Task: structure prediction
Amino acid sequence: MALDFGNMANEMESLCEMLDEAEEMNAKNSEQSNSALKGPGDIGPKYTKKKEPKKKRTTEIWDEDEVPEEDLNFGVDDGDNRPEPEYRTAYRQGVRSEDMFLGIDGKDPGSHCCDDLIVTVELPGVASLEAISLDVTKNTLRVSTPTHRLAMYLPHTVDDKEGNAKWDSDKCELRLTLPIVHKDILDLPDREEILDKYRE
Result:
């Protein structure tokens, strides 16, 4: 078996030329496409975190948001023996077909994905809506009638200005629909913001 060194040399030269051409093409492409390299994060508008005005540093230990709003027994007479009415809490979630079949929004049955808190209070013996006293804050709910008194902390922070109440006189039920306030994960401070706060 004889080796054809002339043919082998020609093949080596051709291979070297092909490698040189490939290197030249890569150099040209890298010059042209350095700015064109994009990934999934480049799709859509750029997200810029809004700079919030810095709060001046105080000696307070907690912010207003971290302190419970009020004592549920405040203003209640010691001799008030009205029983607590039966009540139920439920959650409502707005689910569309793409959530149901495709799971696009990433919603699950947990209460952290729900839109509304629904509280149904049974008030037997109440003849009219005028006999009901209702007070809703972002953390608490108070319902009182001449025969019943309910004071409770809500399981989630709610938007007390946007909720609504409906009275069903046939069932003697008060149904409250309160929108749940969710904190957006993107609005939470990042590590550097927290450190800057304490460096001041």
Notes: Strands lie at 87-92, 116-122, 133-136, 140-144, 149-153, 164-168, 173-179.
